[in-house]
TrEMBL record:
Naturally occurring in which organism (per UniProt): Diphasiastrum complanatum
Source species, domain of life: Eukaryota
Name of the molecule in the record: Uncharacterized protein
Length: 809
């Protein structure tokens, strides 16, 4: 019995093993996959073969997205979801049955079954000896000596892996969709000049990391608290690059990826739950991605998918749309000759960006109701829709391509999108005015009414002088689709009759406002401006086309009667001076740490350099000071009021110095009637840089310590003695970067030299701050000896320092 029992147990065990073997055999027979450890010269990797890295984290194999759409790529192994991190032939799919050959002369070639080449590594005749899929996921071809000749990390697709070199000036491109690895419209750049990460849709930037401080990017403050990754900046043989690595791990499983929806994310493997999770993402809301849903499309961040077509519209490319490629947007058979009656889809809590496309614009009208607004859009075949918020002057007609449509309960605006009535289905939600079931009689009455209205309009236009008609038409247009023309009433309403003042400067007062689409703006009312309307528009057009990450963006203007106003993007953190200086009785602001100060100084220098050297014409700012350096939500520096010196006109004074600059920042040539060049801005920047370092005003007439009352003099003295740390703002409590401090102080002293020929250009200032140009010891500015001789006299005539007092700030 015991023997029989043992035989029975053995038989059951053998049967179980046999069943397991059969199941495994059946699985591999179905998958027909073969694991390859290496690929030698002259070998072939077939479609059913996979090359595995030694740590089994990565795989090189073919994958398919449909008939005759086959690709070769490196991916995470099946244990980690199998996501591709590199695709060789992303823009050139291979036909079914394609294979990879490793030729005897050292070339990797993807070939179709008929032997036509689809992709090759281009390494023929370079003494390639072997191919290896490294533990990092890098596919590498090595020389006979063992040195790398070619590697996939040098040709990234949409992923930045740990320890992969990302050279300045290089980029990666997102896939068109999850089902199409071809290069899409979104790109991720490491900018050559600023060493910052920038994400674009074609030619439009919609997210930036901010400048590199040496430890973090200024626009990603959460990097300060990062305990998972280390970032490094290197400069090998004149080719600077960034790398990064994971802390406390050698698995290299985290990765940066630019998704097909335009967001940049860092993903890490959750070994407990067995999935990838997003550690960080930018932009934080996918609807902030520029033109994510294409023309006419609408984005909703909490829906899946994010993009949808409004009622009466359908995807231009239904196949691509269903796969997640929304670039072609939505269309309707809208007749351009007004042959058909038009209706409007009522889009609740929705808006489209105004002027978001080439040729797009908006026209604003006052004193009309919604019915008038609707009728005006119907009469004009070029009108694509309108918005009306219930106010007496908030009728906005939209023209040209519509992009960046967004819907959310937080949006307090409704949009009426024009569609073809003949294509509306019974379930569509139209403009709620009871006109779903039209009759022929209604059509006739409508046509008669329109004809009568046109006749009345024609009679009115006949009675209005031609010059007046031209002015009215011009008042509701954009300037070349770049700047928006506002009426004075619109800005009066947006600012609550100019009730919330943000500040006052030499050129005018600034007020906070809010547009109809809930965009926060800053409105500057210019003082003492006598420019004619034509000259004003010409200068504004010049300022409006200037765009740089470190320049405040001009959104629009108002030139109505004697009113001259400029509309800027709003900066949540205000001006730099409020963080550097605290007036008696004021609540102190957050202390700017050293990294943030240095990033602001560098960003300001880059903005001024752009005005001097990279614009179509050199623009001299003439009033560089902390009050004119604005800070966005991420404390990125934005130089403001550029171009206003030219705009205000020389006729305001006998010499150009009047209304040009502020006491304590004026270059010596202002006081000697010498010609003013861009070097005057360099001097003002040097004075401003000293204030950023020290957190104190250059002019301190009431300081009890009389030998320090003119700070630049004392700063130069301390620099000559090598005592740089004494210049740092005491609020930093000694937390600063010593080498950066020394560079910044020396650069500031070079900038405030008496002779403009001795001052560096702003391009050289940027290079010195970035560390790419060596900073030598500057001479002592001779003009400061005036203050040294008078330092025991606290009653110095301050009028000697400036031609004109600045208005209070």
């Amino acid at each position: 019995m015991e023997l029989a029992s043992r035989c029975c147990s053995f038989s059951q065990a053998a049967l179980s093993l046999l069943l397991i073997f059969l199941v495994i055999s059946h699985y591999f027979q179905d998958s027909n996959e073969q694991i390859v450890e290496t690929l030698a010269l002259g070998s072939i990797l077939q479609p059913n073969q996979t090359l595995i890295s030694k740590n089994q984290n990565f795989a090189l194999n073919f994958f398919s997205h449909g008939p005759d759409r086959n690709y070769l790529g490196v991916s995470f192994s099946r244990n980690f979801g199998g996501r591709q991190i590199w695709v060789a032939n992303r823009n050139h799919p291979a036909r079914d049955g394609a294979h990879l050959s490793f030729s005897l002369d050292g070339n990797l070639i993807i070939s179709n079954p008929d032997q036509t080449s689809v992709w090759m590594s281009g390494t023929s005749g370079r003494n390639v000896s072997s191919m290896l899929l490294q533990k990092s996921g890098n596919l590498i071809l090595t020389h006979n000596s063992g040195s790398p000749i070619w590697q996939s990390f040098d040709h990234p697709t949409d992923t930045w892996m740990p320890n992969m070199k990302f050279y300045l000036g290089s980029s990666i491109f997102a896939s068109k969709s999850p089902a199409d690895p071809a290069e899409g419209r979104f790109s991720f750049w490491m900018l050559q000049t600023t060493a910052e990460v920038s994400v674009w849709n074609a030619t439009t930037e919609y997210w930036t990391s901010g400048v590199w401080s040496g430890h973090i990017w200024s626009g990603i403050p959460e990097m300060k608290y990062n305990a998972l990754y280390d970032f490094f900046f290197w400069n090998d043989s004149g080719r600077p690059y960034f790398t990064w690595s994971e802390r406390n791990t050698t698995m290299a499983l985290a990765h940066f990826v630019l998704d097909s929806n335009g967001t940049v994310s860092v993903r890490s493997w959750d070994s407990v739950n067995g999935w990838w999770y997003v550690m960080w993402k930018a932009p934080d809301n996918p609807c902030k991605v520029e033109r994510l849903c294409g023309q006419n499309g609408i984005c909703k961040s909490d829906s899946t998918p994010f993009c949808s077509c409004p009622q009466g519209f359908k995807p231009f490319d239904p196949t691509g749309w269903s796969q997640g490629d929304w670039s072609m947007g939505c269309v309707t058979n809208l007749s351009s000759d007004c042959k058909y009656v038009k209706e409007f889809s009522f889009l609740n809590n929705t808006y489209y960006d105004q002027g978001s496309g080439v040729g797009s614009s908006a026209r604003f009208y006052s004193g009309h109701d919604q019915a008038w607004c609707e009728a005006s859009c119907i009469r004009d075949c070029a009108c694509l829709g309108f918005s009306f918020d219930g106010g007496p002057s908030n009728c906005s007609l939209q023209y040209g391509p519509l992009f960046n449509g967004k819907t959310s309960p937080d949006i307090r605006q409704n949009f009426f999108l024009r569609v073809n009535y003949m294509e509306q289905s019974p379930n569509n939600q139209l403009l709620p005015n009871g006109r779903k079931n039209k009759t022929k009689i209604y059509w006739i009455f409508g046509l008669v009414g329109c004809a009568s209205l046109l006749l009345v309009v024609a009679l009115l236009l006949w009675r209005i002088p031609p010059r007046k008609r031209f002015a009215d038409r011009q008042s509701s247009e954009y300037i070349s689709g770049i700047l928006q023309k506002f009426s004075y009433k619109e800005l009066q309403r947006a600012t609550g009759n100019f009730s919330e003042k943000l500040g006052t400067g030499g050129f005018g007062s600034v007020y906070k406002g809010c547009l109809g689409d809930h965009t926060i703006i800053a409105v500057k009312k210019l003082h003492k401006l006598t420019h004619g309307d034509k000259d004003f528009r010409t200068e504004i057009r010049t300022i409006g086309i200037i765009q740089h990450v470190n320049l405040a963006r001009l959104r629009g203007f108002c030139a109505e009667d004697l009113h001259r106003l400029l509309v800027y993007e709003y900066m949540p953190n205000g001006s730099l001076n409020t963080f550097l200086f605290t007036k008696p009785g004021e609540q102190p602001h957050t202390v700017l740490n050293w990294d943030r100060r240095f990033a602001i100084a560098l960003g300001t220098a880059r903005g001024i350099m752009y005005l001097h050297e990279e614009c179509s014409s050199c623009i001299i700012h003439c009033d560089i000071k902390p009050e004119n350096i604005l800070l966005d939500a991420n404390f990125c520096a934005k130089v403001s009021d550029f171009g206003l010196a030219k705009l205000m006109g020389r006729e305001l004074s006998r010499v150009i110095t009047t209304m040009r600059g502020t006491r304590g920042y004026l270059a010596p040539e202002w006081l000697s009637s010498l010609p003013i060049t861009a070097k005057a801005d360099v001097y003002s920047y040097g004075m401003t840089l000293l204030e950023i370092i020290s957190g104190r005003k250059n002019m301190e007439v009431n300081n009890s310590c009389l030998d320090k009352w003119f700070f630049p003099l004392w700063a130069c003295q301390q620099a000559r003695q090598g005592n740089f740390s004494s210049l740092v703002d005491i609020k930093l409590c000694g937390n600063f970067h010593a080498e950066q401090l020394k560079i910044a102080v020396l650069v500031a002293i070079w900038c405030i030299q008496d002779e403009e020929i001795n001052r560096p250009t702003m391009a050289r200032v940027v290079q010195m701050l970035e560390g790419t140009l060596r900073v030598t010891d500057p001479p002592f500015p001779k003009s400061l000896s005036f203050f040294e001789a008078e330092k025991n006299n606290s009653e110095i005539e301050l009028s000697k320092l400036s031609v004109e007092e600045e208005l209070p700030t």
